Amino acid sequence: MFPNISLVDLLTLTILAVLLFGPDKLPEIVQSVVGFLRKVREFSESAKQEVRDELGPEFKDFEFEHLHPRTLIRKHVLDGDDLGVDEIRRALDPRAELSEVTDAVRGAANDSRDTPPTESRTPSPEKTAAAPGTHTTFDPDAT
């Protein structure tokens, strides 16, 4: 009935109840609360049964839990005909495209490893001196 109550919460409520009502009146109060909860449950079940009776025999297996939005969608939309949900998921899934890009990058990296480098990383002194009017990509003063 109360799934989110932990043991510490229950212990705190018990201590609070003992302090508020006292140990001699607490059993009477617990019995009256339990009786009230039983009456509410009986009233709820009788109301559900009346609704089932009014709906007729074709709704004999009707459960009110089926009216919960999640249950309703799961039962009527996702089961059986999925209305193309799998196709939409596949279309929006980026994994296939990412694997293609990854394979292309790995292939390009493997190709660059297979070809020998055309120039060494450190330029020779004769390559650093550029002819007047030409632009070089290597700046000896910057290093």
Automatic annotation (TrEMBL):
It is a single-pass membrane protein. It is found in: Membrane. One of its GO terms (biological process) is protein transport. Keywords: Membrane, Protein transport, Translocation, Transmembrane, Transmembrane helix, Transport. Residues 117-128 have a biased composition (Low complexity). GO terms for cellular component: membrane. Pfam families: TatA_B_E (PF02416). Residues 99-143 are annotated as: Disordered. Signal peptide: none annotated. This is Preprotein translocase. It comes from Streptomyces monashensis. The lineage of its organism: Bacteria, Bacillati, Actinomycetota, Actinomycetes, Kitasatosporales.
